[in-house]
Amino acid sequence: MVTGGLTDSAVKGSSEAYERACQVLPGGVTANIKYFAPHPIVMKRACGSKLFDVDGHAYIDYMLCYGALITGHGHPRVLQAITDQMKEIGTTVFGTPHELEAELAEKLTDFYPGVDMVRFTNSGLEATLLAIRIAKAFTGKEKIAKFEGHYHGGYNQVLFSVHPDLNRAGESDHPTPVPESTGMSAHDRTQTVILPFNNLEATERLLRRHADELAAVILEPVQGGFIPAELDFIHGLRKVTEELNIVLIFDEVKTGFRVSLGGAQKVYGVKPDLTALGKVLGGGFPIGAVGGKKEMMQMTDPRRGRDILSAVHSESDETDVLFHSGTYNGHPIVLAAGLATIRILEEKGTLDDLSAKTERLRRMLEEVYLRYGVPMQTLGWGSIFNIVLTNRPVKNYRDMHQDNQALRKALDYELLRLGIYVKPLNRYSMSTAHVEADIERTVEAHESALKKIVP
Ligand code: PLP
Questions:
Q1: CB 251 less than 6 A from any atom of ligand 1
Q2: d(CA 366, CA 353)
Q3: Which GO terms describe its molecular function (predicted)?
Q4: For 122-178, where are the E strands, in sequence order?
Q5: 263 and 369: one domain?
């Protein structure tokens, strides 16, 4: 019997820790994505590119907290920034304005073409949620459109057709919304239009059909962090949303600071109306941010009219101000970690070197799979990529489904046993902490896995 690719005896500590967790945490996890069968590996510590589990195994980490840790685990400058900040401010959090908020916001307005003003949140989910609320208030419309296979967080309006069963997902050029969770209502289903990624003709047709009801189109400019929007598609989408008065939201929670310092929008040369950020921006702490056009972002300005507090004393309970609040928004320790991370990334050559290193790993892996006669391609951009076991072109969610998932899963479990941490079927994220020896070991591990598993 194997456990996570590891023998039972080798992961005894993980197995016991998981059993204990199951008594008090449903499924033994604090987020469903952390689970994999028969049980996840429980970690004890981490350093640079490595994770260490409770049984003492070391893993080269390609998950990096779902891409957040672009400088690896515990980068000395990030750790220093956190301790310096705590010493300097004498507390952990103010709950009032402080100077770092504007400092980090200025960085975002400098880097991101679509960002004139910024609001911080505590997660990527909160960022897309706020962006959608702004779009609704700005346009006076209520529905949104999202793309099949794109993830924006776990709330009802966007929790459709992220990983839909294709038997329930309708036609490829006119997908139907498939809920990702129980507990969602029939009404929810009417509030979201599903679009086919990288299919401009069908997207445009659907947008024109629903234009009067659509407040926003939200998308990951690079689906899942590894399937880029085609140039014509993304420019076409900008054009048609502008014409139809639909707010264009780029969800750059994954691509922000990874495709470039200014995200995917900078490289595409497309200016969205609103941008959601997260992950890398927090240097390993919980964060999100919404940035966008001044006239849209200013809807949250409490000076605009009666805000929620003054409304308490008003005769009418209507308010002109778009509600946005949060106990920990703009947390000074989180912002210090984020700023330290961005300063590392700003140094000349850092992101280029990281992308080149990622590219090198991708090419080496492609060579190995070719040698073993396994149809395979790597897809990605910047420092994120995925291994897709098909030679057919992959432009969207449905194309992805043509790959050999069973083989990929078997390889991923074997890779775990060999000390390569990729959550089964997940993408690979790289960090500045990954060194040449990590790359070589990773390629060797793939070769061993292929040797063992491919007949
Ligand atoms: N948007 C995208 C593109 C994401 O990848 C994620 C998380 O993986 C989110 C939004 C949600 O971010 P968070 O997990 O910080 O709430």
A1: yes
A2: 20
A3: glutamate-1-semialdehyde 2,1-aminomutase activity; pyridoxal phosphate binding; transaminase activity
A4: 143-147, 170-171, 174-175
A5: no
For residues 311 and 362, state if they share a domain.
no
The number of distinct structural domains making up the chain is 2
Domain edge (last residue) among 330, 346, 362:
346
Q: What Å distances lie between residue 288 and 126, 383, 453, CA to CA?
A: 7, 20, 41
In the reported structure, the alpha carbon of residue 151 is separated from the centroid of ligand 1 by a whole-number distance in angstroms of 7
Tell me the per-residue pLDDT of 35-54, one tens digit each, with 9 for 90 and over. Answer: 999 999 999 999 999 999 99
Query: Is the pLDDT at 5 greater than 50, yes or no?
Result: no
224 CA to middle of ligand 1, Å?
A: 10
Domain with 102 in it: 76-346
As annotated, the active-site residues are 151, 251, 279
Best of 32, 64, 157, 254 to mutate for ligand 1, by most ligand atoms within 8 A of CB?
Answer: 254
Indicate whether 245 and 392 sit together in one domain. no
CA distance 254 to 435: 22
Structure tokens at 291: 């940035």
Q: What is the ipTM of this complex?
A: 0.99
105-120 pLDDT per residue, tens: 999 999 999 999 999 9
Mutate to test the pocket of ligand 1, among 30, 122, 151 (most ligand atoms within 8 A of CB): 151
Q: From the CB of 263, is ligand 1 less than 6 Å away?
A: no
pLDDT at residue 318, as a whole number = 57
pLDDT at 392 over 90: yes
